[in-house]
């Protein structure tokens, strides 16, 4: 009899510090100098929504970069946080866990914005939304997963778009923050251990 079971493979950062219990309304802001288009800003909004759909967390954009909980910016090369970017490919982005909450992306990447890889896209095209969903997982203290289809799986090939949370991602984040009390969809159907 084939046994269906999902072994959770998500991981937490050591110490498991996370946003203070009470803080479920988080704000995010974009580095003003980047002058990001509405399109790009709504792309990040969608990426946040995927995580807020399954947790009690809410993410609201604010114009005050200095006061926002999560600070999103595109930088090139050495940008003063001890983790310089490296041009096309290599490191694509990095996120600093709570309470720093900084989310930096490499401005030198060939970012694909609307998720369709035009056949002319350079081989080094990287889907921005996929990277954003993954990095937000890190902002929320999720480490890497060994489940291949998980957002938190530590590799993505260029030209790939992976933005839907997998079971492993949902189980991991709900372990940290609980589920979404007013989630009116059907509970994600986890494969239960069969007796
Ligand atoms: N940036 C790494 C990452 O976000 C930074 C990193 C390396 C890291 N080791 C870590 C973060 C351990 C937390 C814990 O994974 S990255 C991917 C993926 C990167 C990688 O630029 O290499 C994505 C950014 F998952 F595809 F490999 C986004 Cl989606
Ligand atoms: Zn940085
Ligand atoms: Zn990662």
Architecture overview:
The structure is a single chain. The protein has 195 residues and is an alpha/beta fold. The chain has a single domain, classed as Collagenase (Catalytic Domain) (3-Layer(aba) Sandwich). Helix content is 19%, strand content 15%. It has helices at residues 38-52, 128-139, 167-177, and strands spanning 25-30, 58-61, 70-75, 93-95, 102-106, 110-112, 125-127. A hairpin with a 6-residue loop joins strand 4 (93-95) and strand 5 (102-106). It starts with 24 loop residues before the first strand and ends in an 18-residue tail after the last helix. The model is unreliable at 189-195 (pLDDT under 50). The structure holds ligand TQI and zinc ion (2 copies).
Helix and strand layout, with pairings?
Elements: E1 25-30, H1 38-52, E2 58-61, E3 70-75, E4 93-95, E5 102-106, E6 110-112, E7 125-127, H2 128-139, H3 167-177
Parallel strand pairs: 1-2, 1-3, 3-5, 6-7
Antiparallel strand pairs: 4-5
The structure holds ligand TQI and zinc ion (ZN) (2 copies).
GO biological process, one term: proteolysis
Binding site for Ca(2+) 2: 69
InterPro entries: M10A_MMP (IPR033739), MetalloPept_cat_dom_sf (IPR024079), Pept_M10_metallopeptidase (IPR001818), Pept_M10A (IPR021190), Peptidase_Metallo (IPR006026)
Q: SSE string, helix = H, strand = E?
A: EHEEEEEEHH
Structural class: alpha/beta
Give the full name of the CATH homologous superfamily: Collagenase (Catalytic Domain)
Distinct ligands, ions and cofactors found in the model: ligand TQI, zinc ion
> What's the CATH topology name?
Collagenase (Catalytic Domain)
Adjacency order of strands in the biggest sheet: 2-1-3-5-4
Main sheet makeup: 5 strands, mixed
How many helices does DSSP assign? 3
Mean pLDDT: 86
* Uncertain parts: 189-195
Q: Which percent bin holds the helix content? A: 10-25%
Number of domain units: 1
Integer-rounded radius of gyration: 17 Å
CATH architecture: 3-Layer(aba) Sandwich
